[in-house]
């Protein structure tokens, strides 16, 4: 009996033991689920906070538009009057299509360096032939000396010219357009001193020196018989090419490694140079809009930290929210914080902790991944960031972060463009400056160039969408046209236009 009782006890004990074990497992499961739920909640919270911080409702965009207009006025009123430098380019004639001959150009100012040759056939024949050679700028040159940097450029040009001449025979024209995409204070169309470096360049002995003289010296050292006819910014080159093909082009925007814009301004609106400018038409103004700032810009703690860790703190605030150099890095910072605070990416000792580990093109690839299982996201996380096996749910979160970063950037570009159009009376809001009756739509073209804009279609869609949101029906008359290699080609065209007897003043 006792045995029977003992048996019951054993059975009871076993049952109790099983129940307890099941309980432990259940508790463990529940606690794991609770933990995982909390992790998700934290990750989702961080993304929601970021999205809110990056908010660009149309009301805010219109405030950015107005701030852009105010700053443009201030920058035109006096030197140092605004964070927008509104630099004079001394370009008062744009190529018109009847230029003839062979011209060269150099394009320096970002990730790639380009050497170009353009052959122009004169009236009605457009660009007959064009050759472009691109190469990345060696990292060490970006922080070297003037002599080394310009020596490198001159040697590449010499190689290029020699190759061309070995094929085509001696080429007569020796005029060169130089695209140098950093803020330069120009004193003529073919001279100017560097004001500051941007986009990771830092060559100390370049300050206060005439950039054209530096290049000219290097060309002479190489034994190259060439004359730098024009010194321009990439935006100005892009505007020139845009205008060459379509005379309604009034502005140009660059969205590549950095961002900037230029436009055609009436000379009498350039208050700071009243009396000094002799022509009464227009002049291209290089805005240097990468440095634009207004408190209406949606700034998050990630932007603040990125700025604090940058070599050019408090500078280029607009650029740091928009351009290719920074978008991937903003996304990385957000993802890293999510990794640390929520552990949804597992081990945080990964590459995600390394500044600039996520480039903007990779960010764009993840954003545009349209496979059902987001396999591009998975593979970039595995290969570039060394984080394997992230679940689909987490991949979706990554795409969301990329979307927020890109959408804000694109919408701010749109606001900037509308700001320019408003300043020159092409946004449909004010009296027409062209003598046309108010309300009559006027076709307006903005030339846009840069690897980010060219290579990232969702970004382009967001720009278009925001322009329509801000301008409504007027947007039907606004056309953004992509140019390729316009920054360099345009410099060659400007060299031609400058040397031409038949200038077409703007
Ligand atoms: P640069 O500014 O040197 O003249 P580009 O206009 O070619 O160069 O722009 C290069 C920059 O554009 C790169 O640094 C990169 O950040 C960005 N970029 C290039 N391709 C893409 C792409 N497919 N998607 C997003 N960004 C891109
Ligand atoms: Mg460029």
Automatic annotation (TrEMBL):
Residue intervals passing through the bilayer: 12-30
Listed EC numbers: 2.7.1.-
Keyword Transport tagged: no
All copies of domain Hexokinase C-terminal, residue ranges: 251-496
Pathway, per record: Carbohydrate metabolism; hexose metabolism; Carbohydrate degradation; glycolysis; D-glyceraldehyde 3-phosphate and glycerone phosphate from D-glucose: step 1/4
Keywords for this protein: ATP-binding, Glycolysis, Kinase, Membrane, Nucleotide-binding, Transferase, Transmembrane, Transmembrane helix
CC annotations in GO: cytosol; mitochondrion
Catalytic reaction list: D-glucose + ATP = D-glucose 6-phosphate + ADP + H(+); a D-hexose + ATP = a D-hexose 6-phosphate + ADP + H(+); D-fructose + ATP = D-fructose 6-phosphate + ADP + H(+)
Single GO MF annotation: glucokinase activity
BP GO annotations: glycolytic process; intracellular glucose homeostasis
Record-linked InterPro entries: ATPase_NBD, Hexokinase, Hexokinase_BS, Hexokinase_C, Hexokinase_N
Hexokinase N-terminal domain span: 47-244
Family of this protein: Belongs to the hexokinase family.
Protein name (record): Phosphotransferase
